[in-house]
Structures are given as structure tokens and as C-alpha cells.
Amino acid sequence: xxKLFGTDGIRGVVNQGLDAKLAFRVGMAAAQVLSKKKGSGRxxxxxxxxxxxxxxxxxxxxxxGLCSAGADVLHLGVIPTPGVAWVTVDTGAxxxxxxxASHNPFEHNGIKIFNGQGFKLSDALEGEIEALVLSGEELxxxxxxxxxRVVHAHEKECQDYIGYLASTVEGTLxxxxxxxxxANGAASATAARLxxxxxxxxxxxxxxxxxxxxxxxQCGSTHLERLKGMVTAGGxxxxxxxxxxxxxxxMVDETGEEIDGDQVIAACGLDLKERGLLPGNxxxxxxxxxxxxxxxxxxxxxxxxxxDVGDRNVLEKLDACGYVLGxxxxxxxxxxxxxxxxxxxLTALQFLSLLCRTGKKASELTADCRRYPQLLINIPxxxxxxxxxxxAAAEVQAAVGExxxxxxxxxxxxxxxxxxxxxxxxxxxxxxxxxxxxAAEALANVIKNY
Length: 450
Description:
The chain starts with a strand and ends with a helix. The chain is an alpha/beta fold. The chain has helices at residues 20-38, 55-68, 81-91, 123-134, 154-167, 191-195, 225-234, 261-274, 291-299, 311-321, 344-358, 362-366, 384-392, 394-406, 433-448; strands at 5-6, 9-13, 44-49, 72-78, 95-99, 108-115, 150-152, 177-181, 202-206, 238-242, 249-252, 258-259, 282-286, 303-307, 325-327, 333-335, 374-380, 412-417, 423-429. 50% of the residues are buried. The mean pLDDT is 95. The protein is globular, with a radius of gyration of 22 Å. It has a seven-stranded mixed β-sheet with strand order 1-2-6-5-3-4-7, sandwiched between helices. The chain has a five-stranded mixed β-sheet with strand order 9-8-10-11-12.
């Protein structure tokens, strides 16, 4: 991990390390690096954002940096992160930038860059940009007619993106009554219009009134409690929850039970297998996938490949092996036939399509993929150096090994540093919630006392 770029771009609390000065230099450096890669002609960037109060600030600084370095900018306004990736490819832009901190609280924000093919920027290019930003050197400014221009194209490109998502659905979505939670985030600009494209799909929308500080606040995919209650009280067939930038999607079945990313991939993957559309009869997940998902795949003759945490790792495995579906338990699901990144709205549409084609209830589609009790404890640490010290500590490794031996055959343990936050994550699965809690709390105490 570099000094700026983590596993999902640059993240931080705004004006506490991530500020307009840094964003300006990132814009300038990105334009310079991409201009060199392009060879001739000025580079063209798309840029979009979520609804945080600080997104305008960082977006303005990025645009100023890009234009000062001679790049043109297609300004997309508030749009889901996967929408920026799609528009970048659709318009032939050289790169796309998203201002968002995804599922994090409103005081956080981030800068993520896609290449011209809609994939997250490579480590090598991130490294070049980072080196320029941190060099301390004055970066060259363009003057006269070489200064970049900005074109505002929010409405057209947003409608084109919505139209593309709708085109991925086979047949009709008529019948279900769904409740959609936009997390007061980027989906607030697109979700209602997207689902309205389908006659006979009855859609109600909540948490679609962003005010700059209510993004992810007790709503969306990280806080499903209200959605669960409203789904059962209102007799809905399905609840759909996005995170702040709508690249994640979790759902709630008609009984009020959560449908996580593993279960979405399991249901959609089995459907693809039965229709002969699952290359290699294989799915891709991460080491955080639930033990129940592994058992589901084994029972249905599906190979499950697991990568390190991060949708970038999932995507790399999908492309390397020619597979078409994978993702994370947290709701990042990649339908590779249709997208280059996780897309929450696309995920919702594909699950709804399966619901309508089979005539089954949501609870029936996911019944075979049981979720074993899983407990995740996040332990705050001071910084990256502390993360590394904890992970290398002999007493921590010994404690992990001890609990792995105790749970052998009946559960598993995973201790890892967060790629986006100053946290060590302890995850334990077991046959009972009590066993998972005992192991997780014991390991958390070892880490806290280190």
C-alpha cells in the first residue's frame, strides 16, 4: 500500500489529511501521467461524486487541477461509482474519477480513479501519480488555449447509464412490490428512475433525501434494521439497500431476513449454471465469504475460488480465469458480462430478474445457502505501522493458531488489517453464535493488549 492510495483509492477525513490542496495536486498529477500515457492529444476525464457535504469541495479542486494541467473534464455530478466507470468507457474518456468514501460516515471522503476501460487504475499508474503528488515539486501549469475545458453532462449521461442497466434484464420484472433504500447517497439520483423503467414493478423508495451529512446515517446497506421492519410491515416481496456510492447492494427477503452478497452470488450463480451460462461452473468470492457459501457450492457442484479481500482481487481472478460472477459478502457483486466493477443497481436488477423468472419468493431462492454464525470485531489502531506490528506479533499469531485448532472442522478464523480504515478486523465463524463470540472476543483482547 502506498502513502496515499489504499486498496480502494485515497481515503480520509476531509481537511484532516484529505483536503483541497491534495485533491488539486492529485488532479494535476493524474492529468500529467495520463497525458504521457496517451501520447498525443489532451486527456479527457469523467468525474462524478456522491452526496457528502465535502464532495463539492474535493470535486472542485480535482477539476481545477485537471484543467490546470491541460485535461478536459466531463462533469457528471452525483452519480453512482459504477456509473462513472460505465460512462468513462461509453464516452471513450481516458480515465474517470469518483469522489466518494462509499459506506463510510459523511466526514470521510475519497478519490478513486478508473482507467479508460472502466477498471480501477493499476498499482503502477497509482504509484506514478502518488510519486508526483508527494514529490513537493511545482507541477507544470498550462496556459492560453492549452487549459482544459469542462462540459457538464449529468442528465444525458445519467439517463444513458440508467438505460444501459435496464437493458441487462431478460424479460419482464412485473409483479413484485419492492422497497428501495438509497442510503441518502448517489442512488438517490438514479434508483427511482431506474426501477420506474419496468412496468408492473411496484417500487417505493426511502432515504433518498440527501442533505450532505445523512449519507449512510442509520440507513443503507450498513444499517438494515429499518428496512427489515418496513419490508415485513408493508408486505413487500423484497427490500433493496445500497451504500453511499451504490456499488454495494444487500437485500431483505419477504420475511425480513437479510440476503447478503454470498447468497446473491449463490442464487444467481446456480441459475447461470442451470442455464449453461456459468463458465467452468465456477464462482469467485473472498476469504470473508461465509462457510455456508462454501458448503452450498460443494453441494451444487460449483467450484468456489477465494481471493484476498477487495473487489479488485475478485475482478482480477474473474478475468484471469474467464469467469463471469463473483464478489464479496458485503455486497460488492460483479456481473462480469455487464460491468467492470461492482454495481449495486445492476445486482438488484439481476436478482429481481431471477425472482420473476422462477416465480419463487426471495427466501426460497436463498434457502440453500445457509449463513453460519459469523462475528466481526473491528479493533482501532493508531496507523499503518501499528497494523503491521500487530499482524507480525508472535503472540497474535499464536492466539490465531490456537483458535484455528479449536475450531478445526467446525469453523474458521480470519484476522486481517483493513485496507481503507485504521482497523484490525477479527472475523470468526462457528456452528454456534456463542462459540464464534468466545473466539472473536478472545482474539480481540489479545490485539487490544498488544
